[in-house]
Amino acid sequence: xxxxxxxxxxxxxxxxxxxxxxxxxxxxxxxxxxxxxxxxxxxxxxxxxxxxxxxxxxxxxxxxxxxxxxxxxxxxxxxxxxxxxxxxxxxxxxxxxxxxxxxxxxxxxxxxxxxxxxxxxxxxxxxxxxxx
Amino acid sequence: xxxxxxxxxxxxxxxxxxxxxxxxxxxxxxxxxxxxxxxxxxxxxxxxxxxxxxxxxxxxxxxxxxxxxxxxxxxxxxxxxxxxxxxxxxxxxxxxxxxxxxxxxxxxxxxxxxxxxxxxxxxxxxxxxxxxxxxxxxxxxxxxxxxxxxxxxxxxxxxxxxxxxxxxxxxxxxxxxxxxxxxxxxxxxxxxxxxxxxxxxxxxxxxxxxxxxxxxxxxxxxxxxxxxxxxxxxxxxxxxxxxxxxxxxxxxxxxxxxxxxxxxxxxxxxxxxxxxxxxxxxxxxxxxxxxxxxxxxxxxxxxxxxxxxxxxxxxxxxxxxxxxxxxxxxxxxxxxxxxxxxx
Lengths: 132, 343
Ligand code: HEM
What we know:
heterodimer
């Protein structure tokens, strides 16, 4: 090979960059965060279920919240009827979601830190720990 | 022809994942085995190609540049266009890689009134290409939030800047959208300019369609039909920590996205996409133009038989002395003097 010194340096950099996640991953686990459902409100529930299916909530809760916001702020409609069992809920971030999930740090935040999302809701809405 | 073929191929690939995962339940194959194979193909294939290129001898410096080369001290050298030092070459290469400097000089040749040849300023290809490549890079860097735990600070910073715009409670990543816009422009350009269309082959359309598919599925997943991002991260981290798992309930869109990425990177070493490595090995970009200052020996020269003057003199010394020719060695003082003045 000609110019082998430069080519080898280049290739080492190339391999280094494209295997970086493996280097960081050595000896680590890939566990998703354990979410705590241990809140007074949820413990009172007979069936420990969310507003909608858990699977739906996991991937679509932001969409649901956005629909709620639009419905409340634009249409003044504050009642949400669950598609799962027809139960009625008040469409409220603070008074519904965080009433059950009052352990925001071990629930919402644990998940969001893992997935690296930082919703800016709490610059206006009040989180449960701040009320106390 | 190439266009239809490529479109058909990409559609078939997407259908393949769809059937594989939805009907046959091959999520382990598409979520774990294929990604590993694809990554290995990419890295080994890339190294193989570069080493193969490295084995090709470069006969001499190729100064096909458009600036003044290093010359007399009162002639101003164009140090970046026509570098004579390594640092100049590094600067030229960096500008080329980061800002596509030679593409910036792109012009369009056109016959006006059927007889006059006119060259026009043409920057759209440069702009589209630059936006596309930078967006791609930033999107990939942002994806490191799925690959690393904890997420490093620079990924978070890029995400903050890139997600500056909030739409419907959610950050919209500019580069994700720009990626799709730019690749669509590059595709349309290929189809609508007849000359470009004429030189386009399946190998040109195929990567465009694959990247379009990746960007489309990504955007669908993020803004329209959601995926379970936590499960995706579990899968990704599983791959990178070598204890692969396939969590339940990841939508088919994710498998399509991932499979197209695998197709792209395993196709990479066999295709024109290798320009990523090739740019660094371009003879007109990576050599200092120092032909006049440094002796550059042609690597494929065979040893040439030479007969030096000394050997010549040794051979004919007696005869030369006899006819009174000046001698460099073993001559008398007078003969030596004559030899030096003759030089
Ligand atoms: C060639 C590499 C890749 C490209 C160009 C790419 C491109 C994209 C784009 C443009 C988006 C839209 C959102 C955004 O702008 O970030 C996206 C989203 C996404 N990509 Fe990729 N992707 C690539 C590789 C991967 C890989 C290897 C994975 C597997 C872990 C992956 C998983 C995802 C997921 C889960 C989303 C949805 C993100 C969300 O909902 O927030 N991508 N991708």
